[in-house]
Write a structure and sequence with these properties.
The complex is a heterodimer. In chain A, helix 8 (205-217) packs across helix 14 (336-349). In chain A, the strands form three sheets. Chain A has a six-stranded parallel beta sheet with strand order 2-1-3-4-6-5, sandwiched between helices. Chain A has a six-stranded parallel beta sheet with strand order 9-8-7-10-11-12, sandwiched between helices. In chain A, strands 14-13-15-16-18-17 form a six-stranded parallel beta sheet, sandwiched between helices. Chain A folds into three domains: 16-182, Thiamin diphosphate (ThDP)-binding fold, Pyr/PP domains (Rossmann fold, 3-Layer(aba) Sandwich), CATH 3.40.50; 205-367, Rossmann fold (3-Layer(aba) Sandwich), CATH 3.40.50.1220; 383-556, Rossmann fold, CATH 3.40.50.970. Chain A is built from 25 helices and 18 strands. Chain A is α/β, with parallel strands linked by helices. Chain B is built from four helices and eight strands, in the order E-H-E-E-H-E-E-H-E-E-H-E. By secondary structure, chain B is of the alpha+beta class. Chain B starts with a strand and ends in a 7-residue tail after the last strand. Helix content of chain B is 29%, strand content 43%. Chain B folds into two domains: 2-75, Alpha-Beta Plaits, CATH 3.30.70.260; 83-152, Alpha-Beta Plaits (2-Layer Sandwich), CATH 3.30.70.1150. In chain B, the strands form two sheets. A four-stranded antiparallel beta sheet of chain B has the order 2-3-1-4, with helices on one face. In chain B, strands 6-7-5-8 form a four-stranded antiparallel beta sheet. Chain B has helices at residues 15-25, 54-66, 96-108, 129-139; strands at residues 2-10, 30-37, 43-51, 70-75, 81-92, 112-116, 120-127, 144-156. Classes of the chains: A alpha/beta, B alpha+beta. Chains A and B meet through loops of A and helix 1 and helix 2 of B.
């Protein structure tokens, strides 16, 4: 039998360095990039040919689908703060990145997506695997580039890196035609672009003073800490603000982990499926201090009633977020950390400690929170094998530094409520876009970014099956994550909507014959465990946690459990249904009360 | 209310698409759009007129301002700026009397006659859009055969503000 001879990587010469593909790799290395998530293909072959010579310096994680690559890049970016890099070929490869690029755009995640493109002389000819990716990605990127000259490669990549991370981060897409990758750059000709990038806005002095004054006047202040606090590494500062003002603080889904959820002032997550006490606090507060949050419809419900009886201080790095969804009394534009440092100083100067304890307000919120939490405590004992039980159990078994990723759906909302997080960048979830299939590849990316901690992917059977092929990568690259599938054999969130708002007409939500995820794992030569009893879960998780390789845990949870509380879409926060303490009403109650008020 | 927005952009490929696309995507209606070079190298100017309330226009300006290739955005307020549009209008002539009338009106409005054929007369109308509207109304009984308008351009009376 003849053994095939495989070429070895070779030393890069100075002549090589002038070739487009090596300019790409060299520039990436200079920018500090050492990990790529990508899949090769016709139009990106030259680039990967160069990567072949970077053994030990650039690691390419060969994903099985480009969507897996882009979500892994997102997971990597979210835990490290550095841009995640994903690579694909032109046409279908690049199109498969689109979902993840849109996801990163909604959640302000810095990623750089680099795709091959057909050679420049074929562009516009409907060539094989040609797609106008500049057109396709324009609405879902912070910026995109098509490199049309080999001398522009270095500057374009450097700019992309800056654009993706500076100010409000976001995805940048780069199209690199195949011939550009193989051309030789002219000597010392790395072209600089003539223009500079936008400066990051600085917090205005007067706005900070005005905000401090509002805080001093407030009787029932509440801080909302959004994803911006995590992006700007401002957890310490937001905690200082909460403790200085001595007021409760809730986070958004994206902000989870920015403030320790074990802290007495923490209310956990607010919004559509948020904690009752958090939404109760929003309704009753007279001042919202919102940091790095964009008041999405999942937070506000109906914006008019959301703003009733309260003033808003809005701190955001993006001026376009100010006044977009809600009117701010005072707006501070700038990096969350800088803004908070100045605001804390201003509040201290104004003598917050002396005048304001908000003791009455804090007690009110604390009382509600205590009752809600006693229900949570009760649930872990009385519930059967449910998502609430499973997630609470796992929450108690993991370490604060461990990372939790999620898919999208009921399990995500259960995890937001029942998975306690105390550190920033330990919670990775698809917020704005709500991308099913995000959790598992994002967990892989997170593990690559933070190899020293355990990464748990709380997933659904629906979400997991959208990107489950990446199990192959876990095996091949020896990346250990723990996918825990909350398997209710339904597209559970939609089923819940159909049950609640659509008279139980369960149209296309039932998976009547799911695969065995244990066997699926085994097919990838990884261990899998099926959990069918409450008593088996802790042991299964312990085994997976201690194991050196990815272990899939398939938890056969009760099928038709709903995630409560819930804010009916577009309703006012007061119309939250299904709670235990404040929002005990049902959807029928809301309909009755709406029709009594002459509303539809 | 009609707003005139002046957008200074890098002379980069696709910049017009980026700006126009953003307007469409966010549901802002473009009334007219013009683009051209400026005195500074590498920069072009896009002038867009759009209808919308002040709040919407503020959002437009902020969102446009975020585009990487946009250098600055500001509104050209009617009182502080000069607004102009160019229009070519082809009017049908039917008999000597009507031809003279058209020429008379054109002169009153200081419009130029740029072409005359046995059956048509083509006028160059320059001024604020309202002036063009008014003149076209005046011409309509004669029979307007075709109209080409450039869309609005404008410049602030003082040196340009940075937004």
């Amino acid at each position: 039998m003849v053994t095939p001879v495989m070429q070895q990587s070779r030393k890069i010469t100075s002549k090589d360095r002038a070739i487009g593909k090596y300019v790409m790799t060299e520039t990436l290395v200079k920018l500090g990039v050492n990990t790529l998530f990508g899949i090769t293909g016709g139009a990106i072959i030259p680039f990967y040919d160069a990567v072949f010579d970077y053994k030990g310096r650039i690691r390419n994680i060969l994903m099985r689908h480009e969507q897996g690559a882009v979500h892994a890049a997102e997971g990597y970016a979210r835990v490290t703060g550095k841009p995640g890099i994903c690579i694909s070929t032109s046409g279908p490869g690049a199109c498969n990145l689109v979902t993840g690029i849109a996801d990163a755009y909604m959640d302000s995640t810095p990623i750089i997506a680099i795709s091959g493109q057909v050679p420049t002389f074929l562009i516009g000819n409907d060539a094989f695997q040609e797609t106008d990716m500049i057109g396709v990605t324009m609405p879902i990127t912070k910026h995109n580039f098509q490199i049309r000259h080999v001398d522009d490669i270095a500057e374009t990549l450097t700019r992309a890196y800056k654009i993706s991370t500076e100010g409000r981060p976001g995805p940048v897409y780069i199209d690199v035609p195949k011939d550009i990758q193989t051309k030789t750059a002219s000597k010392n000709s790395a072209r600089k672009f003539a223009y500079s990038l936008h400066p990051v806005p600085q917090p205005g002095r007067q706005q900070v003073l005005d905000a401090a004054e509002l805080i001093m006047e407030a009787e029932r202040p509440l801080i909302i800490s959004g994803g911006g606090v995590i992006i700007s590494n401002a957890s310490h500062q937001v905690r200082q603000l909460a403790e200085t003002v001595n007021c409760p603080i809730a986070t958004t889904l994206m902000g989870k982990g920015a403030f320790p959820e074990t802290h007495p002032l923490s209310l956990g997550v607010l919004g559509m499926h948020g904690e009752e006490h958090a939404n109760y606090a929003v309704i009753n507060s007279d001042l919202l201090i919102a940091v790095g949050c964009r008041f999405s419809d999942r937070i506000t419900g109906d914006t008019k009633s959301f703003q009733e009886g309260k003033k808003i201080i809005h701190i955001d790095i993006d001026p376009a977020e100010i006044g977009k969804n809600v009117e701010a009394e005072v707006a501070i534009t700038g990096d969350a950390k800088q803004c908070l440092v100045q605001l804390v100083k201003a509040v201290r100067n104004a003598g917050a400690k002396r005048h304001h304890k908000h003791s009455e307000w804090n007690r009110r919120i604390k009382d509600v929170k205590a009752i809600v939490e006693s229900h949570h405590e009760r649930d872990i004992k009385t519930e059967g094998l449910t998502q609430i039980f499973s997630i609470q159990t796992i929450s108690r078994m993991i370490k604060p530094k461990d990372i939790v990723a999620t898919g999208v759906g009921q399990h995500q909302m259960f995890a937001q409520l029942y998975m306690s997080r105390t550190l920033p960048r330990t919670w990775i979830s698809s917020g704005g876009a709500g991308t099913m299939g995000f959790g598992f590849p994002a967990a892989i990316g997170a593990k690559v970014g933070r190899p020293s901690v355990e990464v748990i992917d709380i997933d659904g059977d629906g979400s997991f099956q959208m990107t489950s092929q990446e199990l192959a990568v876990c095996k091949e690259e020896n990346i250990k994550v723990i996918p825990v599938i909350m398997n209710n054999q339904y597209l559970g969130m939609v089923r819940q909507w159909l049950e609640t708002f659509n008279n139980k007409r369960y149209s296309t939500v039932h998976f009547t014959d799911n695969p065995s995820f244990e066997k699926m794992a085994e097919a990838y030569r990884l261990p899998g465990i099926t959990v069918t009893r409450k008593s088996e879960l802790a042991e299964a998780f312990r085994t997976a946690y201690k194991s050196g390789e990815t272990t899939v845990i398939d938890v056969m949870v009760e099928k038709e459990k709903n995630i409560w509380p819930m804010l009916p879409a577009g309703g006012s926060l007061k119309e939250i249904i299904g709670g235990n303490v404040i929002f005990k009403q049902t959807w029928q109650d809301i309909l009755k009360s709406r029709s009594a008020r002459g509303l539809k | 209310m009609r707003h005139t927005i002046c957008i200074l952009v890098n002379d980069a490929p696709g910049v017009m698409t980026r700006v126009a696309g953003l307007f469409a995507r966010r549901g802002y209606n473009i009334d007219t759009i013009t683009v051209g070079k400026t005195n500074s190298r590498g920069a072009s100017k896009i002038i867009i007129t759009a209808i919308g309330d002040d709040k919407t226009m503020e959002q437009v300006e902020k969102q446009v301002g975020k585009l990487i290739d946009v250098i600055s955005v500001f509104e050209l307020k009617p009182d502080d700026s000069v607004i102009r549009e160019l229009c070519l209008a082809k009017i049908s002539i039917n008999g000597r009397k009507r031809k003279e009338d058209i020429i008379k009106y054109a002169n009153v409005y200081k419009n130029k006659i740029v072409d005359i054929t046995p059956k048509t007369i083509t006028l160059e109308i320059m001024g604020e859009p309202q002036k063009i509207d008014t003149f076209l109304e005046l011409m309509s009984p004669f029979g307007i055969l075709d109209v080409s308008r450039t869309g609005v351009t404008g410049i602030s009376r003082e040196s340009p503000k940075k937004s």
